[in-house]
Every structure is written in structure tokens, then in C-alpha cells.
Amino acid sequence: MKLTKLIPAVALASAMPLVAFAQDAEAAAPAPGFDEFGPYIMTTLLFLIGGFLVMWMAAGFAMLEAGLVRSKNATTQLLKNIVLFSLAAIMYWFIGYALMYPGDAWIIPGIIGSIGTASMEPVGLAAADADLGYASVASDFFFQLMFCATTASIVSGTLAERIKIWPFFVFVIVLTGVIYPIEASWQWGGGFLSEMGFSDFAGSTIVHSAGGWAALAGAIILGPRIGKYKDGKVTAFPGSNLALATLGTFILWLGWFGFNGGSQLAAGTVGDITDVGRIFVNTNMAAAAGSVAALILTQLIYGKIDLTMVLNGALAGLVSITAEPLAPSLFMALIIGGIGGVIVVFAVPMLDKVKIDDVVGAIPVHLICGIWGTIAVPLTNDGTSFGTQLVGIVSIGAFTFIVSLVLWTILKILGGIRVSEEAEITGLDKAELGMEAYPEFYKG
Amino acid sequence: MKLTKLIPAVALASAMPLVAFAQDAEAAAPAPGFDEFGPYIMTTLLFLIGGFLVMWMAAGFAMLEAGLVRSKNATTQLLKNIVLFSLAAIMYWFIGYALMYPGDAWIIPGIIGSIGTASMEPVGLAAADADLGYASVASDFFFQLMFCATTASIVSGTLAERIKIWPFFVFVIVLTGVIYPIEASWQWGGGFLSEMGFSDFAGSTIVHSAGGWAALAGAIILGPRIGKYKDGKVTAFPGSNLALATLGTFILWLGWFGFNGGSQLAAGTVGDITDVGRIFVNTNMAAAAGSVAALILTQLIYGKIDLTMVLNGALAGLVSITAEPLAPSLFMALIIGGIGGVIVVFAVPMLDKVKIDDVVGAIPVHLICGIWGTIAVPLTNDGTSFGTQLVGIVSIGAFTFIVSLVLWTILKILGGIRVSEEAEITGLDKAELGMEAYPEFYKG
Amino acid sequence: MKLTKLIPAVALASAMPLVAFAQDAEAAAPAPGFDEFGPYIMTTLLFLIGGFLVMWMAAGFAMLEAGLVRSKNATTQLLKNIVLFSLAAIMYWFIGYALMYPGDAWIIPGIIGSIGTASMEPVGLAAADADLGYASVASDFFFQLMFCATTASIVSGTLAERIKIWPFFVFVIVLTGVIYPIEASWQWGGGFLSEMGFSDFAGSTIVHSAGGWAALAGAIILGPRIGKYKDGKVTAFPGSNLALATLGTFILWLGWFGFNGGSQLAAGTVGDITDVGRIFVNTNMAAAAGSVAALILTQLIYGKIDLTMVLNGALAGLVSITAEPLAPSLFMALIIGGIGGVIVVFAVPMLDKVKIDDVVGAIPVHLICGIWGTIAVPLTNDGTSFGTQLVGIVSIGAFTFIVSLVLWTILKILGGIRVSEEAEITGLDKAELGMEAYPEFYKG
């Protein structure tokens, strides 16, 4: 205590918040030491850092989508993104987490989890109890919640510029409370896919293609935007703010280090933290390769580089490496991510050919590259097989797609999911919200 | 050293920066081991991570405010935000930190701290000295500084679009150098409020409502914008860039994990890191609940969702949980944050009724919800009482409000704090700075 | 395992991804304990956190530059920034890392490193091998890669609004694959500068002024924008989106904590983490001082505050402290950063006098302040000398400038590096990419 005169005050200050749980002070007295519980502390820290990085991806989706829609729909898109994240946070607590991690209490073993709200360990228990799990329950909940929210974020972009706000929120509630937790439980909750040996490290299928399937179902029921496919021609509706779209992509790229790195689910041994390092560089390499692949391809095919393709190429690389970011060498990560970038360049126009109107390209990026990444796992991971990977892709895809299709149809029947033609032409911001994103800038 | 041929070079490289303090090498020889000092290391890391997250909130305020003002005042708002953060960094070092953490050297015991500049421990001392505090002094300073800066950020939004730039900076200098450090010392520096048992975990009152009181004083002295309240009607001046405002809200939401989580002030035991996890999920839940509460309420009351209310609802939830983010269950966090969201929806029009013109809604969000959060502490924390909470709210509120009122009045007398009517109509960017934020976009 | 019913499921879930490397399970059985390897774990974590913060700086440069160019060139600037980051990631893996860290295998000892691609330790090796380096190879690669990418980011801003896209990418490939790794190897790879005792903690010279020299060479070969210097007058081309520019500055400020703090290259002892804390506060102080210095100076000299100068002042402070963020006291950090801010205010018009057109001010900020910061090292670090610092500045500067000059000239001869006059007037976005950043907003 001899450093500076400030130290004692600092120490005092630190004692203040502790008053909050002073009642536990006695129980906590012989607090488990640092050494023995270092791994618990480090893994909890990994969940918290990984979690806040993935939370940041919600902002990335918001910026990407607000930048890629026309400015007359930007407010609506921003609103949908912050609200879907909020709804996910509530629903995942309310029923999702228990459905996803039922322990031994499955309603239908390996298929449908249990009913209940999530709860954290009581304050002070961890401090007093030496017989703990491998990390704090709350930190695990925090991290897992962010994956649930990401799944919903994926849906929002595809359906932009024409969907009614409230039915979208209802869909998000079911998706984050029920659909995602159930299909994710099959693998991450110890359900039938994990028993089979399916492998999806951080969720190429469980998060990204699931989100993509839900989006595809919505796009089919909803139909394309007015004027998108007319007289056999595809009309491009350029994004209104590419600076925002680029910012969103950078945010997603950053957040993905938490998404994939945190999915190591452990950081307290030399082996685990070294693996997290491998995951970081592979994730980065795949994104870079996807971006460069789209760069070169759009130049070759169209004679001009397409920035939105480059952005989606980076995201495609990220989705592709997500099923197995640990096992590949840097060279294999480059290949896997680069193929993701190639897929996006070809899949976007193909989707237009079948008149599925995906405003931001989420289906090529998340659904198709999610499948590609999952199929690619056995290329680098000996413990997996193409057959099992396919079973995982198909079962999660079929479940998510069919339930989503049914849900969108019900919503359509109940009150409609599409705004009026007039509202769509005016723009959802003015028509539905009465609030423009850029009210002072003249529009072309 | 047998991993790859690169390792030796890496090791060499790592030695390079060490040259910088080679003079301390000998003293440092028997460096305190990792095991014994794990908690010191982890808590220092918590301060650094928490600190950079809260620093990021300065960008969040900048974006939120630049998005909510009219574009003719956006440059000014951006300038104010980056400069206030800079001034806070300098003033908190120059006098703030010593005032706030006087140790045993109070000028007036428990009320006014000591005089002096902050200093870090010398390079190499920590390495050589086994008799250390619980974390590095610099990391603590870094973390605490960010709270001081946040207090100033809150003020800047309320007074937008009409305040003169230099008087605002003078106010910031006094606020960050004197007003905040004094009132914060009462609790976090071990002053009279902490002795009484007042509880404000991360600063609902000490940071947020203090900033709100300073803003309110300014708004009263400054008066409303031209045309805001005319002929008994309230005119809405819509924000010019809601994408920025949404981005700012997401940034603040992200930064708040550092704000509340870092306020645990310790991360090196199982109990502490588990508490940080609880704080993260409660913080997130309160924000989500505030956002959804504002969503539902604006739909019910106005028949249309109001995005800026939803954004402020999320922030209101965050402010509300800040006084006690550790003790509540997830359900209680939802209630506390949700009520924050409700408060904002009702407080914004109420403020307009009394003709207090708060451009971004900082007073409802930070002042009123800060009070609510502080009053709510005894609901979940047995060691506190409503009476003591009220004493804390009133003493910090009265002090900050009165000193701010006096200071704004002095500034008004000395040279005026409000731009000319002409400048206000033209916009501060052109009139005061000669620099528009979006010079190429036509304005409506 | 008695906390809640959720724990067993959580534990199960955590086992899932582990399937991915189950083949290593046996080898990993006696995994090195936490205690002994705590420093390895903490330093790896520092690299990963520092690395993702510096990665985020790529977004900062993108926003800063997109905000400071005219809107007709914003898409191009965004594209260049995401692609240069991607190219850097690939090239640094492909040849850069081996060139920079050759170990004992120099091609020309101390001057030119070795040939080869970078590789990570195999999965599971770290877990099984107790005889490890001081941190994971992949985490080191990740961190170092980000510095390489930053060097390229600096170049992109200066040459905006007139350079052809593909020649720029070719330059980036050579810069990130060859030029940067070679000059950086002289110091950080254990080359001749490090043997001499040159000191550049986090790269004021190695990263920032190197990037600045490459930019200067390009600006000379490329020439100024049409209309910039006409009839002896300098025409200002105001940035089109100052909100983005401010956001970019905040992002860079945030990322710099990783840039400088991570350059401690160790976090597993009390001494190291305490140093990281010192670095954080010094970095912050220098930025604040640079910003305030530019604020005061522009008011005094021009009678009006210039926001872009304040932003560049903050960046100038950051660059200035980067050569020695550890040794200075807070007061010296304020002086060093403040002088950086002063330099920028005077250097920007000086550069215009010699008709070097630097669109974003990267040469004053990164080149000139990089030199200043490197020269200032002996002021606070006894183990260094002005002479040796000058040798480092001159050798890295001469090498980078001359090689860049040659490369830009070759590119000019081969196919030209400048767009047509017509394309420049139309804007690169329409002319080269056929894609506007803000297609719906009327331009003035």
C-alpha cells in the first residue's frame, strides 16, 4: 500500500459496490483461490468478451441492412433490428434457454427440451461454493443468447422494404423462443444430432443457415418487392447508404471473432487459448479470402467491381468457416472462405432467376454458405463424415423451413404480413411509422 | 522452443519493446509470480477492458446526438463530443482524480477531497514490488476517467442546437475537474454517502442523474430553441439521421457492459467474475425490457411506433439497472428496465409541457431514470434502505444542480451562452464553425 | 454440479465443439496446468484482444476516409479499405510474416528475412506440449498482421479521389507482402535496427511513418486532384460526411488501446499488466492533448474551430505517443501528444504550399508525427539516443519512400495509376464502379 497516496482511497472505493452483497461476505470468506479456479475465471471471461463481440453484431446487421435498403425504408429497418435483439433477449430467457439446454429433463429426449425460465446462480453462491461448473451460468447464458439473436438478425434483411412490422416481431418471438432453441438443442443441448456426431463448431448450420431458411420461407410467402421482377427483367434497387453497409460489414467481421473464438467454450488451459488463437486467424483469413474472391469475380464477370458483392463475399467467407474454424490450416481457411465468396457471386443472380427477392443477400450468404461450410467440415476434421453432416443440414433445414413456412402462412392468414401497395411505394418509414431516417435530405 | 522456425524470431521480437525499460530489468528479476498475483492481473485487465468499452460510449453519445439534431448543427455536436472527452481526460488527471479519491487527505472530511494531479506507479515498480494494491493504479485511473467523461457527454445532448461552443467547454472543464469528482467522492471516494450506506453500484445517480441535473440547469438558463414552443404548441424537430442515432444507441448498449461489469472492480476470484457475468445479463435484460416497453407504449398511445422512443427506452433501461445490476434476478432486471422504458415515454412530453427543451431526451433518460434506478435498489438489495437512497439522490442532485445553475448563470453574465438568433436559424455549423457536416446533400 | 438444472446441459454443450478435435484428446490428457502457464494464457489473450481492437481500426480508416472525400468518391474509398485489409491478411500470411520474423534464417542477415508462408502450431500440440513459447503462434500472427494492414490503410486516404483501383491494390500487395515486412524486420524481427538499440515501441516509425512515406511517394507520382491548386490558390474540398469522419476517429482512438497496449507483448506478470495500464492512460492522454491543441490553435489562427483539424489532432497525438507509450508520465504524454496536435495544424497548409495533395491529412498525421514521436523517445526513455532514433527514422523512411516511388513509377508506366480527367470530375464511384454511395441524396 505504499505506491501513492491515492491507493488507499482506491481500495476504499472498490469496497463500495461490495456493500451490495455484504450479506454474503461471511459465506464467501474462504473464497476459492485463483490458482485452482483460474480456468473457471478465464472461461467465464471468454464468454463475456465473446458475448459482447457477438452482441455488437446486432449493430452490424442494423447498419448493413439500413445501408442496403432504400432510404424510405431505413427507419423501419433500424427499428426492426434493435427490437428483434430486445425480443430475443427476453424470449431466450423466458423459454429459449431451457428448451435449448434441458440437461436430463427433455420433454422428448434429444428432440424437444424442457420448459422453464433461465436463472443465474444466486449472488455469492459461486464465491462460497468450491464445487462449480466450468464457467459462470450467467456468462454462458449471455454468450448463447447472442447466437439466438443473430439467427433473428439474419431474417430481417431478406424481408425488408415490404413486411409489416408487428407480424415480423411475432415471428421473431417464435423464432428466438422456440424454433432456434429447439433445433440448436439437437446439437448444442446434447440432442440427437450431437449423439450422431454432427459437427458445427460455431453454427454455420445451427445459426446461419437456420436463419437463412427462416428468411427463405418468409421471402416465398411474402413475395418480391413491387417492380423488382417486371417483364422478365430484374431491377436493381441500389442500397441508399453504402458507408453504413460497409460499416456494418466491418462490425460483423469484428464480432465474428467472438462468435467463432468464444465457441471454443473454454480458455483456461494452454490448449484452449491456443485453439482460440487458431480460430481467430482462420476466421480472419476466410473473410479476407471471401472478399477477394468476390472482388476478382465481379471484375471478371461484370467488368466492374461490385462493393456490395465484396461486402457479402467477406460475410460469406465468415459464414463458411464457422462450421469448423479450428481444424483448418490457414491455407484451407483461405480455400473454404474463398469458395464462400464465389458462391455468393453466383447465388445472388440465381436467386433472382427464381424470383426470390432477398433485399440484402442474406440467403446466399447465410443459408447457402452455411450449408457449404458445414459440408466442408470433413475436409479438415477427421472425426466427421459427409453423411452425418448432411443429416444435420437436412434435419435443421427441414425443421426450420417448414415451421417457418407454417408460421408465416398463419400470420398471413391472421392479419397479413405485407404492407399495402401504396405504403410500399411511399416507403414504410412514412407510411407505417411516420418517421423518416433522413428527413432533411432530398431523395432522388 | 520447437514449435516452428518462427518462434525464436517471435521471442526475439517480443524482447524489443522491453529494451524500453531495460533499466528496470534487474529490479524486476524476481517478478511476482502469476499464481499469487493472478487476481491483481485479472482485475487490472477488467479495468482496461471495462475502460475501453466505456470510452467507446463517448462515440455512442456523439453518434446519438449527431443523429438527433438537425443536420445544420451536426458538425457542432460532433465537435462538442470529441472535445468534451478530451477535456475530461485532461481535467480528471489535472485535479479530478485527487478530488475524487483523496485517501486520508480530505480538505473537508467526507465532502471535499484533496488537491493534486494523478500519477501512475513508476515503470518497473510493480514488477519489483510484491506489496501491491489490488490492481494497477493506471488501470483504475483509466476506468474511473471514463465515468467522468460520460457525465459530460450526457450534458451535451440536451443543450444542442443553441449553445455557444466555448462556454460549453468551460462548463465541461468545471464539471469534469470539480463538480463530478466532488459529488462522486462522497460515495466512491469513501465520503459521507458511503459512510451512510448509500448504494449506487455503477452510477445511476453519481454519473447519470448528475449529468442530467447539470443538463437541466443548462436547459433552464439557456431556454428552448426558437420555434420549439410557439402559440402553446410543441413543434417536433425530427432527428436528421436516425441511422446514426441507432448506431449510437447500440454503441452505448455495448459500452454499458463495461460500465456496469467493470464496476464490480474485481475479476480475480470465482465470486467476482461470476458477479460480472450476472451484471452483464442483467444489464442486457434491462435494456431489452426498456426498448420493448417503449415499443409497446408508443404503439398503444400514439398508434405508431416511435423509433427514437425505442432507442431512448433501451437507454432508459440501461440507466435504471445501473444503480444495482448485480442483485436483481433476470426477472427483476426486466421489471426495473421496463419501468425505465415506461418512464421515458411519459417524461418526454411532460418535459415539453414545462417548456424545458431537451434535444435528445437526456433528462428523461439519465436524470429521471437515474433516480428511478437508485430508488429501486432496496427492492433487490437487503443491505440498503429507501431513506438512505433518497439522501444520496437529493444531496448529489442538489449539489450538482445548484452549482451548475450558478456556473451557467456566471457564464451567461460573462459573455453569454446562447448563439444569436440568426446563427441559430442558420445553424451553428455554418454560423459558428463555417463547416457543414453534409455539405453536398440538399437540405429540406 | 448442483447449481441449477441447467448446468449439466451447459457442460454437455461445451463438450460438443470439442468433438472437433477429439482425436487429440489422449495426447492432451495431462494438459499443462493453469498456474504454470497462466502467463502464456494471459499473453495470448492480450494478443487476441489487442488484435481485434487493431482490426477495428481498419473500419476506422474506412469511415474517416469515406467521410473526408466528396460523396462521389465514397464508394471507391470504402471498397479500397475493405479490400486492402483483405489483401494484407492474405499477403502477410503468404510471405510477410516469414520475411518479418525469419528467426535465424535470414536471407541477408539483419536486412532481408526468409521465404515461406506462416503456419500455426497444429491443433492439440499446445495442449500436449509443456515446452512452449511465451504465447500462441497464431495469436502473435493475428496481432502482427493487424499492424501490417494498418500501414496500408494509411496510404489509402492520401491518394483518394484520383487513383485507379487496381494499381492501388497491386501497391497494397507489395506493401503488405514485402515492403512493410522487410522494414519491420529490421526492428521487430531482430534485424540491424534492433541490434543498434533503435526504439519504436508500437510503431510510430515502423507503421505510421512508413505508411506515410508510401503515401507521400504515391502523392508525388500521382499529382494533386484537378482544381486543388489553381492560379496559386488552394481550394478546399470539404469532406462530405463529417459524422462518418468523427466516427472513424473515435474508432481509431479505441483501436489504439490495442495497438499500443498489445505492443507490450506480455500480460502474464504483475509488471507487464501494470505496464499495459500505463500505456492505456498515456495513449488516451496524448490523443486528448492533440485534440485540444488543434482546437485552441485553429481558434487562435483562423478564428474558427476546425473539426477535421481536431480529429486529426487527436490522431496526431496518438501517432506521437506510439513510439514510447510506456515510459512517459501523464504530463509528458500530454506534452508529446499536444505537440503532435500543433504539428498537424501547421503541417497541413505547409503540404499544400508544396502542392502535395493529401486528401485526409495522412502525411502530417502519420508521417510527420510519426517522426516526431520517434525523436521524442529519448526524452523519457534513458536507454535510447537521438542518434540511433534518427538512424531508424532515416533508414526506414529512405527504404520505404524509395521502393514506393519506384513501384508507383513502374505502375504508372505499365498502365497508369490515375483515372481519366473525365472520370475524376464525374467521380470514381460512377465512372469506375457504377455504384454510388448515396444514390438517393441530391448532391450540391
Automatic annotation (TrEMBL), chains A, B, C:
Superkingdom of this protein's organism: Bacteria
GO BP term, pick one: ammonium homeostasis
InterPro entries named in the record: Ammonium/urea_transptr, Ammonium_transpt, Ammonium_transpt_CS, Ammonium_transptr_marine, NH4_transpt_AmtB-like_dom
Annotated signal sequence range: 1-22
Pfam families the record matches: Ammonium_transp
GO molecular function: ammonium channel activity
Ammonium transporter AmtB-like domain span: 47-438
Main location group: membrane
Transmembrane domains' residue ranges: 46-69, 81-100, 141-160, 165-182, 202-222, 234-259, 279-298, 305-323, 329-348, 360-379, 391-411
UniProt subcellular location: Cell membrane; Membrane
Bilayer topology annotation: Multi-pass membrane protein
Any one GO cellular component localisation term in the record: plasma membrane
Family, per entry: Belongs to the ammonia transporter channel (TC 1.A.11.2) family.
Protein name (Swiss-Prot/TrEMBL): Ammonium transporter
Organism: Celeribacter indicus
Organism phylogeny: Bacteria, Pseudomonadati, Pseudomonadota, Alphaproteobacteria, Rhodobacterales
